[in-house]
Write a structure and sequence with these properties.
Radius of gyration of chain B: 21 Å
Distance between the termini of chain B: 42 Å
Subcellular location (chain A): Cell inner membrane; Endomembrane system
Membrane topology (chain A): Multi-pass membrane protein
GO biological process, one term (chain A): electron transport chain
Number of domains of chain A: 1
Radius of gyration of chain A: 17 Å
Oligomer: heterodimer
Structural class of chain A: mainly alpha
EC number (chain A): 7.-.-.-
Largest interface: A-B, 29 and 35 residues
Distance between the termini of chain A: 15 Å
Largest sheet of chain B: none
Structural class of chain B: mainly alpha
Number of domains of chain B: 2
Order of helices and strands of chain B: HHHHHHHHHHHHHHHHH
Number of helices of chain A: 9
Number of strands of chain A: 0
Enzyme class (chain A): translocase
Strand content of chain A: under 5%
Shape of chain A: globular
Chain lengths: ~190, ~350
């Protein structure tokens, strides 16, 4: 039981890392990784939203869509659920903790467009996860996303001062680095 | 030309980059000798051909960037990358395989980032991993050690490298492969059944690893690098293999000694992990960096798809190195722990 969940978690964090192995959530991965602090803020916000959205979309599918025979509407309804969760989180955080809101504020709306969030919601349905499994899968995906984003941000701070040839400066060398990191993560294949 | 203002200390370092690199090259000699002794001329041809191609690629990149050829070639960093890659590749690899690996190492992992000193990943290991993922069949074909099969002579070895159609080389699973694919055999039976195992690890492999250990210790004595990263890596690998040893049972991950003397352990610990550019910089950072590699090597060797994991473990740790450095910055003298003056 416990082993099953830890395997699910490790699988989502390392072996099937959402960014480096499944290539989801690349936009914030490239966009918010220029500085370590912002990457950390983004990671915290994404972890919170992804876990919550994964659970909420699971409930939406099994309590609403399936009984009504509306499974074909899942993509559009998940997008709606994610947008609602993001908006709800923003409102709660703003009222309850102004400090946290100042740290996460800018990144919260950005998460709506993070395809990893939608990806997790849809994969939960494809893999027939139970509610608890969906919760863990979402949390694992978010941890994997955060890990890679933070490590990448630390590396990009170093790349910013490297003597990179003119045509490869900026996003180009970022892409090359992401590719090499993806190669490295292939080493985890078969671990679970 | 503006005068460069240099801050203190005004002491002159006794080693230049070129000298350090040449000592590293010298220190690989015992390992290369053992590889040649046990597996034939394959490794020597790998190294020579890799160096030839590597210098060509390095010159091309320097020419394209309008840099001084002699200045940058003289630091021998390209040679070190190529020699390390040549050692890591299986003997009797076809020439094009080596050329692709060297191109990935020199052009992609090193020159795209601005050359020596800027590369975030170890170039030789990038070359190795690119090849392992792209050409798994050629990359996992290790020749059997001397004593288990005839070792090709120099002429046959050259043919194997440059005229692949004429040579049908014999290959054999390495001890790490065998242990990884062990299905329910007790260690004792597996050991007795498989001729590739030697006294502690694999025939040939134990001596190759001891030779690299000797070269590494010499570098340590010459103060080319500090002990932190290699010792941390070997210690964490030993700890992991001791924790999951499980004695002689069929699910055993292999004894600590087996892991220390198998595959690329010593080569990785003293020649790859110690790369000053792509590893963590601070003292505590190097300890964390080395320990991370040791743990990853064991994880991937025993539970992953790839029987030797040093290259992957090093790349993953390289990826984490800037982050490790960020959190292990040494305290500035005269400042308190919180960073303020105290």
């Amino acid at each position: 039981m416990l082993a099953d969940y830890s395997i699910l978690l490790i699988g989502a964090i390392l072996v099937n890392n959402f960014v480096l192995v499944q290539f989801l959530g690349l936009c914030p991965f490239m966009g918010v990784s220029n500085k370590l602090e912002t990457a950390m803020g983004m990671s915290m916000a994404t972890t919170f939203v992804l876990t919550l959205a994964s659970a909420c979309s699971h409930l939406t599918y099994y309590l609403l869509l399936e009984p009504l025979g509306l499974e074909y509407l899942r993509t559009i309804s998940f997008i709606l659920v994610i947008a609602v969760v993001v908006q709800f989180t923003e409102m709660v955080v703003r009222k309850s903790s102004p400090l946290l809101h100042r740290v996460l504020g800018v990144y919260l709306p950005l998460i709506t467009t993070n395809c990893a969030v939608l990806g997790v919601a849809l994969l939960n349905i494809n893999k027939d996860h139970s509610f608890l499994q969906a919760l863990f899968y979402g949390f694992g995906a978010a941890l994997g996303f955060s890990l890679v984003l933070i490590l990448f941000a630390a590396m990009r701070e170093r790349l910013a001062v490297a003597d990179v040839p003119e045509p490869f400066r900026g996003a180009a060398i970022g892409m090359v680095t992401a590719g090499l990191m993806s190669l490295a993560f292939m080493g985890f294949a078969g671990l679970v | 030309m503006a005068l460069m203002r240099v801050s203190s200390p005004h002491a002159h370092g006794s080693y230049s980059t070129g000298m350090v690199m040449r000592q590293v090259l010298l220190a690989t000699l015992p390992g290369v000798f053992m590889l040649t002794l046990f597996f034939g001329f394959g490794t020597l041809i790998n190294v020579a051909w890799a160096c030839l191609v590597g210098i060509a690629f390095e010159s091309l990149a320097l020419f394209l960037r309008g840099r001084s050829l002699t200045f940058y070639l003289k630091d021998c960093s390209a040679l070190v990358t190529c020699v390390l890659l040549g050692i890591a590749l299986p003997p009797y690899a076809p020439w094009w395989l080596i050329a692709v690996g060297v191109a990935a190492a020199i052009l992609m992992a090193k020159q795209l980032y601005g050359g020596l000193g800027y590369n975030p990943f170890n170039p030789a290991m990038v070359g190795y991993v690119v090849l392992l993922i792209s050409f798994p069949v050629q990359m996992t074909a290790w020749a059997p050690p001397r004593g288990l099969a005839d070792v090709p002579n120099l002429w046959e070895a050259l043919q194997a490298c440059f005229l692949p159609a004429q040579f049908d080389g014999v290959t054999m699973a390495t001890p790490l492969d065998i242990l990884r694919q062990n299905q329910g055999l007790l260690m004792e039976d597996l050991w007795a059944q498989t001729p590739q195992f030697g006294r502690w690890a694999g025939i040939g492999w134990e001596w190759v690893n001891l030779a690299f250990l000797a070269g590494g210790l010499w570098l340590l004595y010459r103060r080319i690098f500090t002990w932190h990263a290699p010792v941390a890596m070997l210690a964490s690998l030993t700890l992991m293999s001791a924790l999951f040893y499980a004695g002689g049972s069929s699910s055993s991950g292999g004894s600590p000694l087996f892991h220390l003397l198998s595959g690329a352990t010593m080569f990785g610990a003293f020649f790859i992990v110690t790369d000053p550019v792509s590893s963590a910089v601070s003292v505590r950072g190097r300890l964390v960096f080395g320990a991370l590699i040791g743990v990853l090597v064991y994880l991937i060797r025993v539970w992953g798809n790839y029987p030797d994991a040093v290259a992957f473990a090093v790349l993953i740790a390289n990826f984490a190195a800037p982050f490790i450095d960020h959190y292990t910055q040494p305290r500035v003298y005269g400042h308190g722990k919180s960073g303020g003056t105290g």
